[in-house]
Design a protein that fits this description.
By secondary structure, the protein is mainly alpha-helical. Helix content is about 70%, strand content about 0%.
Length: about 600
């Protein structure tokens, strides 16, 4: 009887969506704004007058893992196809993270901040990234849906923070994708012995930095987006093949470079800028590890999440850390850090030892890496947007899953076009300056969400344990912020004694004095609360290494998101949640209907 009731509830939800409108590419207004608040000016005015009440409702209401996995999926009408295994996820992880940036950032940070100690910088930033991967892995196993961090934060922290986080990371995805597309043109030009501007169209009537149109930055994302639409498994096969070829190219680069190794370049003045230089480089190099969160959005298409996701995410990140360290050691063995070029370090290092042909290896590796990076980027963007559409915080038209391909066609088209428009017009110098703090902000929220998931369950956690948990969590976050601020404003070390001590004692208190309220069913982060607490501290530390402009851009974009949320997203998601709630109340009545009677007969108009 219980199973029948659940099936009826799902059928009700799905039928409600069907009743609202079509999910095709040619759409009506109702497909974008089907909610009650947008049916007339009077309805919208009433919704705006209720903004405070609605915000409090959505701010305090929490979804559940079961709702995200079952009810939210049903809104898409059709299911994504479960075709991916751990092998696919390992190479998707490699493709999502490994891009052209490694060939530039290594030389820049070795020359400017770390010297040969850049290998330590890569290890520090790699460990920081791995801490985040652990947190994502538990959530992806427990809540295997397309929304990734959006779904995880929504379950533990609510709609509002989830929307702000997801909106910021989508902005970074678009900027990052456009940047990769334009860089693809640059390395492709190198392969053909041309200047990148030979492939661009100069339009003097447009503003500076927006007047070199890049057709390839449109064509390549469209081709990759079409592949992502046609088949996730087919995209995975292409990605795996390209990534394996890229690994072969990287091995050749390392082997060729080591034939001209000079150990004195590496051992003489190993850390010329001291520990501060090493950690400053770590903060910059951390961004060469981001992208793994796109793999978490593929959990819904994974055959066996409990097995495949841990192997895929943790395996790919471990492999990438090794590759990055090997490349950095090779470069520093070939040349002294003082003469490493900051714009084309590997190409010019090979040229300096008479191996001009090797620059083509670097270009091939970069082109392949950027192709797989762009593929994972578009796939991740589309799945984020799909799940946001399921909650109605974005138009539900985006939530559609194609019955034949099992992919989110509408969301993929929209995000691909966004990449193309930005990449066509915007110069790399502009795009490179748009990196915001969104990634670190979201990684921090996911770690906080994991602690909440483990230590607090409504109706089960005692008031005493709840209050102790809140106190310890607040102290962990505040001490991490204090450490970050001290790092940003001071060159001393005395200030770390109280901030790190408070962080340590707060984490220890959480471990010893608060009982965990929930254990993971499939796979869990080890060393809780130490590992997620360290994740919070490391992300805050890295935030302190970013410039003020990054925080300003984050604030501006967040303000734009807030305007949209309070004018549209809040009211759409509120109406949708209330309709689902009414549907659940009607579900028991379905059991009494005669066989063959239409389900829509009991759905409220």
């Amino acid at each position: 009887m219980m199973e029948s009731s659940n099936d009826n509830q799902r059928s009700l939800t799905t039928t409600t969506v069907v009743k609202r409108g079509r999910f095709g590419c040619f759409c009506r207004k109702e497909d974008f704004f089907p909610e009650e608040s947008f049916q007339s000016l009077n309805s919208y005015g009433k919704a705006l007058r209720e903004t405070k009440m609605r915000f409090l409702d959505r701010f305090t209401t929490r979804s559940s893992g079961e709702q995200e996995v079952n009810e939210m999926r049903d809104i898409s009408q059709h299911q994504m196809k479960k075709t991916l295994n751990w092998w696919d996820l390992i190479w998707f992880g490699f493709g999502a993270v490994f891009g052209a940036g490694i060939f530039v950032l290594t030389g820049l940070e070795a020359n400017r901040d770390a010297g040969p100690a850049i290998i330590i910088s890569f290890l520090v930033s790699g460990v920081s990234a791995m801490l985040c991967v652990f947190c994502y892995t538990e959530f992806a196993c427990e809540i295997p849906v397309a929304g990734g961090s959006f779904a995880y934060i929504r379950v533990e922290l609510g709609d509002f923070l989830a929307f702000i986080a997801a909106g910021n990371i989508l902005f970074e995805y678009i900027v990052g994708g456009a940047s990769v597309a334009r860089t693809w043109t640059s390395y492709f030009a190198t392969l053909l012995n041309h200047h990148p501007d030979d492939f661009r169209i100069y339009v003097p009537a447009l503003a500076e930095n927006f007047n070199h149109l890049d057709p390839l930055a449109v064509v390549i994302p469209i081709l990759i987006g079409a592949m992502a639409i046609l088949s996730t498994k087919g995209s995975s096969r292409f990605n795996s093949f390209a990534a394996i070829v890229n690994v072969g190219v990287i091995v050749l680069i390392i082997a060729a470079g080591l034939t001209h190794a000079n150990t004195e370049n590496f051992t003489t003045n190993f850390a010329p800028y001291g520990p501060r230089g090493v950690f400053t480089a770590s903060a910059v190099l951390f961004f060469s590890y981001i992208g793994f969160d796109a793999v978490a959005t593929m959990a819904e298409e994974t055959k066996n999440p409990g097995k495949d996701i841990p192997i895929g995410l943790l395996g790919s990140m471990s492999f990438i850390i090794c590759v990055y360290c090997a490349l950095s050691v090779t470069l520093c063995l070939m040349q002294s850090y003082t003469v490493i070029d900051i714009s084309a370090p590997f190409s010019l290092a090979f040229q300096a030892v008479g191996m001009n042909w090797a620059k083509y290896l670097v270009a091939i590796g970069a082109v392949i890496g950027m192709s797989t990076n762009l593929l994972a980027n578009i796939i991740g963007q589309a799945r984020y947007f799909t799940h946001i559409g399921r909650t109605h915080m974005a138009p539900p038209w985006l939530a559609a899953i194609n019955e034949k391909t099992g992919t989110p066609v509408n969301a993929t088209i929209v995000m691909t076009l966004a990449n193309c428009i930005v990449g066509l017009f915007t110069d790399l110098s502009i795009l490179s300056n748009l990196l915001s703090i969104a990634t670190l902000f979201i990684f921090t929220l996911v770690a906080v969400s994991l602690l909440i998931r483990r230590y607090y369950v409504a109706g089960e956690t005692s008031n005493a344990d709840r209050n102790k948990f809140i106190g310890f969590l607040v102290m962990i976050v505040l001490s991490s912020i204090a450490t970050s601020v001290y790092w940003a404003v001071s060159n001393g070390w005395v200030g770390y004694i109280p901030t790190v001590s408070i962080w340590f004692l707060s984490t220890l208190g959480l471990k010893l004095m608060v009982k965990q309220a929930r254990q993971p069913k499939l796979w869990g982060v080890p060393l809780v609360p130490w590992l997620p607490s360290a994740t919070i501290a490391m992300n805050m530390f890295l935030l302190g290494s970013l410039d003020a402009a990054s925080f300003i851009r984050f604030g501006i974009w967040t303000a734009i998101l807030l305007v949209y949320y309070f004018l549209v997203g809040l009211h759409a998601s509120y109406d949708s949640a209330k309709e689902v709630s009414r549907g659940k109340e009607e579900a028991p009545k379905l059991e009494n209907l005669e066989a063959g009677q239409p389900v829509t007969a009991v759905i409220p108009a």
